[in-house]
C-alpha cells in the first residue's frame, strides 16, 4: 500500500475491524497508531437528502485534513459509504477526497455486507478508485464450517490458548458456523467466537482448554434460517421445524412474513404434486416450471411427503393462522393478539399439519 487509503468489505465484521487496527498502526509512528475517527454513512445520511450528505462530506474532509494536537495522525473511517455515492455531486466530492489525504493521515471505507445483496456499481467504482490510488483493497468473507474451525485454532494461539481435541470444532458449531443455509446472518460470528475464546483464556489461565470447557462455557448461538425452517416443514420434520420457528421468532422474524413464506412453499408443493400426478416426470419439471435442477429435485422430495388432502388441510390451517397473527377470528371478529399467542398458534398449526399421522 503506497497511500493512506483503504477499502475493506465483506461479511466478517471482526476481520474488518482487525484490518483497520493494522492500518492505523502501519500508518502511525512506531508504537503510536493513528487516532481513529469513525462515522456511519447509513446512519448519518441513509434517508437524508443531498444537503445533509454534503454536510457529512464537509465533516469528513475536515477530519481527513486535520491531525490531532498530540500524538500521531488521524485515520478517518467511513462505514457504509453507499448513501454518499447515490448522487453525482456527493459521489464526485467523495472521490476527490482520495487525493486530499495528507501524509500521516488515512481514509478508510468499510462496507459490511450480508452476502445476499448485490454490490452497486457506485461501490465498485469507489473500490476501484482506492485501488488505483495505491490503497489497500480487500474482501473479508464470512468464515464457514472448517474455515471457522481453523480460524478458532489460529486465534486461540494468538491468545496463548491451546485447544484440546474437538474443542475448536464444538466452538465453531456453537457460534453457528456449520449452518449450511445461505440466508443466515454470519457478520458477527467470528466476533462472537473471539469473545468466547477470550472468555476461555480467562477461565483457563494455564493456557489449555478442553472440549468439555467449551461445552460448559460457550452457549449455543446458532442463527435461525428461514430456508431451513421451510425445508423442515416441507419434509414434515416437525421437531426441527418447531425449534427453528422458536429461534426465528426470538430473533425478530415477523410471523405474518413466515406465514406468507409457508403459504408460498406449500403452494409450490401442490403444483409439483399435480404435475407428477398428471404424468410429468421429475426431470421435466425443470423445463415445465422453469426451476433450477437442484430446486426441482428438492421440491419433488418434499411433495412426496404429503398427500393431496394433507396439503389442502395445511393451507386451510394457514388461513386461520394468518388471521390470528393479525388479531382476527375466522368469523371476522376482533380477537386478542400478542406475540406469545401468535407463536403458540404457529406451533399448534405445525402440530396439526406437519406432524405425520401414525
Draw up the topology in text.
Blueprint lengths: L4 E6 L2 H15 L7 E6 H5 L4 H15 L9 E6 L8 H10 L8 E7 L8 H12 L3 E5 L4 H14 L3 E2 L3 H8 L14 H15 L4 E2 L1 H7 L8 H9 L3 H13 L4 H23 L7 H4 L4 H11 L4 H17 L14 H15 L5
Parallel strand pairs: 1-4, 1-5, 2-3, 3-4, 6-7
Query: Sheet with the most strands?
Result: 5 strands, parallel
CATH superfamily of the largest domain: P-loop containing nucleotide triphosphate hydrolases
Q: What is the succession of H and E elements?
A: EHEHHEHEHEHEHHEHHHHHHHH
**Total count of domains:** 3
Strand order of the largest sheet: 2-3-4-1-5
CATH architecture of the largest domain: 3-Layer(aba) Sandwich
Task: Give a written overview of the molecule.
Helix 15 (308-324) runs antiparallel to helix 16 (339-353). The chain has three domains: 5-140, P-loop containing nucleotide triphosphate hydrolases (Rossmann fold); 145-217, Helicase, Ruva Protein, domain 3 (Orthogonal Bundle), CATH 1.10.8; 226-353, Zinc Finger, Delta Prime, domain 3, CATH 1.20.272.10. The model has no long low-confidence stretch (mean pLDDT 88). The strands form two sheets. Strands 2-3-4-1-5 form a five-stranded parallel β-sheet, with helices on both faces. Strands 6-7 form a two-stranded parallel ribbon. The protein has helices spanning 13-27, 41-45, 50-64, 88-97, 121-132, 145-158, 167-174, 189-203, 211-217, 226-234, 238-250, 255-277, 285-288, 293-303, 308-324, 339-353, and strands at residues 5-10, 35-40, 74-79, 106-112, 136-140, 162-163, 208-209. It contains 16 helices and seven strands. By secondary structure, the protein is of the alpha/beta class.
Amino acid at each position: 500500500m503506497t497511500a493512506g487509503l483503504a477499502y475493506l468489505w465483506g461479511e466478517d465484521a471482526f476481520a474488518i475491524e482487525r484490518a483497520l487496527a493494522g492500518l492505523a498502526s502501519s500508518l502511525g509512528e512506531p508504537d503510536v497508531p493513528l487516532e481513529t475517527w469513525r462515522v456511519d454513512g447509513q446512519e448519518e445520511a441513509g434517508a437524508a437528502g443531498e444537503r445533509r450528505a454534503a454536510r457529512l462530506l464537509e465533516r469528513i474532509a475536515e477530519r481527513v485534513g486535520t491531525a490531532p494536537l498530540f500524538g500521531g495522525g488521524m485515520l478517518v473511517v467511513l462505514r457504509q459509504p453507499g448513501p454518499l455515492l447515490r448522487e453525482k455531486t456527493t459521489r464526485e466530492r467523495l472521490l476527490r477526497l482520495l487525493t486530499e489525504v495528507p501524509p500521516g493521515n488515512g481514509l478508510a471505507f468499510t462496507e459490511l455486507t450480508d452476502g445476499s445483496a448485490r454490490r452497486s456499481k457506485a461501490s465498485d467504482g469507489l473500490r476501484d478508485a482506492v485501488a488505483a490510488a495505491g490503497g489497500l483493497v480487500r474482501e473479508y468473507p464470512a468464515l464457514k464450517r472448517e474455515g471457522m474451525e481453523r480460524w478458532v485454532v489460529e486465534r486461540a494461539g494468538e491468545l496463548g490458548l491451546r485447544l484440546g481435541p474437538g474443542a475448536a470444532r464444538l466452538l465453531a458449531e456453537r457460534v453457528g458456523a456449520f449452518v449450511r443455509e445461505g440466508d443466515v446472518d454470519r457478520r458477527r460470528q467470528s466476533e462472537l467466537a473471539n469473545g468466547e475464546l477470550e472468555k476461555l483464556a480467562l477461565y483457563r489461565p494455564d493456557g489449555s482448554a478442553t472440549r468439555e470447557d467449551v461445552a460448559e462455557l460457550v452457549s449455543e448461538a446458532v442463527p435461525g434460517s428461514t430456508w431451513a425452517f421451510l425445508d423442515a416443514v416441507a419434509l414434515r420434520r416437525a421437531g426441527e421445524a418447531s425449534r427453528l420457528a422458536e429461534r426465528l421468532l426470538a430473533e425478530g422474524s415477523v410471523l405474518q412474513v413466515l406465514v406468507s413464506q409457508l403459504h408460498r412453499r406449500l403452494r409450490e408443493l401442490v403444483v409439483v404434486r399435480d404435475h407428477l400426478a398428471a404424468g410429468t416426470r421429475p426431470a421435466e419439471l425443470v423445463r415445465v416450471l422453469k426451476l433450477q435442477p437442484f430446486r426441482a429435485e428438492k421440491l419433488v422430495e418434499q411433495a412426496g411427503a404429503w398427500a393431496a388432502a394433507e396439503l389442502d388441510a395445511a393451507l386451510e390451517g394457514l388461513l386461520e393462522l394468518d388471521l390470528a397473527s393479525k388479531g382476527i377470528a375466522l368469523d371476522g371478529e376482533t380477537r386478542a393478539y400478542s406475540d406469545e399467542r401468535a407463536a403458540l398458534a404457529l406451533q399448534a398449526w405445525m402440530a396439526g399439519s406437519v406432524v405425520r399421522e401414525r
